Amino acid sequence: MESKFKVNTEGKWYDNVDLAWRMNEYDEFAVEQAVQVKDQVGEADVTVLSIGIDKVKETMKKALAMGCDRGVHVNDDASYAKDPFEIASIIAAFARDKGFDLIFTGMQSQDRGSAQVGVLVAEMLGLPSVSTIVDFAFDNGQITAKRELEGGLRAIIKTQAPALLTCQLGLNTPRYPTLPNIMKAKKKELLTLEVATLLQDGARQETVKMYVPEKKGGGLVLEGDVGAIADQLVQILKEKTGVLA
Amino acid sequence: MKTLLVAEYREGALLNATYELVAFAEKLGAESAMFLVGSDTALPKYDGTLYLADVAQAGEFNPAVHKQLLLDVIAKEQPELIVFSHSSYGWDLAPRVALALNAAQISEVVDVAGNTFVVPACNAKLRRDLQSKTAQTVVTLQGGAFGLSAEPSGTPKVEKIETATASPLEFGGYEAVEKGGVDLTKAEIIVSAGRGIGKAENLEMISQLAEALGGEYGASRPVVDAEWAEHNRQIGTTGQTVSPKLYVACGISGAIQHLAGMKKSEFIIAINTDKDAPIGEVADVLAVADLKELVPALTERIQKL
Known about the structure:
The complex is a heterodimer of chains A (245) and B (305). By secondary structure, chain A is α/β, with parallel strands linked by helices. Chain A has a single domain (25-197), classed as 3-Layer(aba) Sandwich (Rossmann fold), CATH 3.40.50.620. Chain A has helices at residues 25-41, 56-66, 84-95, 117-125, 179-185, 226-240; strands at residues 47-52, 70-75, 102-106, 129-139, 142-148, 153-160, 163-167, 189-194, 205-211, 220-222. Chain A has a five-stranded mixed β-sheet with strand order 3-7-4-5-6. Chain A has a three-stranded parallel β-sheet with strand order 1-2-8, sandwiched between helices. In chain A, α2 crosses α5 and α3 crosses α4. The longest helix of chain A has 17 residues, at 25-41. The two termini of chain A are 43 Å apart. With 305 residues, chain B is α/β, with parallel strands linked by helices. Helices cover 26% and strands 30% of the residues of chain B. Chain B has helices at residues 18-28, 55-58, 63-77, 90-101, 203-213, 221-225, 256-262, 291-304, and strands at 2-6, 9-10, 13-14, 31-38, 49-54, 81-85, 104-109, 111-113, 116-121, 126-132, 137-141, 157-161, 170-176, 189-193, 216-219, 246-250, 267-272, 285-288. Chain B is elongated, with a radius of gyration of 22 Å. Chains A and B meet through α4, β4, β5, β6 and β9 of A and α4, β7, β9, β10 and β13 of B. β10 of chain A pairs parallel with β18 (285-288) of chain B.
């Protein structure tokens, strides 16, 4: 997610052109946590799933290089137009008969930011879920997680696997894939499923339009030579604030 | 239009964000009732029906129990809108309720006009207008987006509620992230570092500018997550909320969670290479420059005064 977003011609989402693509930041913590659990318990099998255009396979290859065992790409050219309920339905339909002990998701995406999908998946599957975790410990099926609250407070939550956890930034330190692991990842299984095989329900909300917000701030903008800006700032600090008095 | 407002209570106190829900209903011109898992010793100032579950039984954090209590009240009240704060409590509970109701959920609403809800997208760089397609709709409101027109007042008509739902989660209490050391809420001048500082070593120039100005340095969340600064320096929703005389934001793009923690500062200077960064919305002065050049230049000039 880089900074130069343009609204597409349909006016309902952003244009894919000229954007640098990378894994959703929150998901990096989810992938890392799953791989850490695998490292801890030894006998574990980690599947990473992503929904979208063919390009999301690149992101999944990074997850495989980080240590996931297999990738599942749900092929959908129109995933951008799907609402959180539809996205959650697709994931739940895939996971329903797989018997996963743990499901990790990002606590939200960087583009939609609804913070709904993980919790919805858990509710659809009838699993307990803990959202917004910044700490996770796993001991023989016993989960102790810490949820991040406002104002520097955390809540300690215990539950039992199978369960779903949504991951907040700072949960762990996502590893950088090493070159040997990137090579190994090329040989790992990457399955593609068509979205129509997993999604039966329709959207519950629709986007009327997407747009660049109007600038509200009427602040002064200083541009140009750095030395000149520094001089202007000193002058402003003297005139507008009492801090240099 | 009928709304149900889901109030919040933590560590024995009603949260002020509750009144933003009231302001939202007021803006819509909608009827409202309120739901609270709390205590009759800390009632909201509110004229209307308050469905109150005792926190001693239902717990401050217990999503399965709170969901069932809410579903019971919703079945009775039949609200078209169920309104939460977009907070750690709200974004956790709202989807559970929405799914049980077969309702759409629209998250982090910043504005409303009729049946159209405005929400941010792409780290607040874009906006979307959304409409629900279901009879009932769950919404969560961005903190600070709706303010009351007057001081809250009134006395609720309390209806006690309870449930016997079991929970798969066990709440083990709260813990505070280490405080101690610096107290930024008391600082009159704060110079803050964001992701734009690029690496840990560059925090030094931020703290030097803070020192030259006679203030403290702070940091945005990514800087603390990267362990370039201690958590007690973090400013924003999950850190400290500050309102100094002068706030200098260096390399901070201005995520909503950061803005919530500093926008009440008296005077804000932002230093950023991106002229369109959201921090510009709250800044009195936006210096479009590379902080790695401008910050040392500014420090040098102030030291010479």
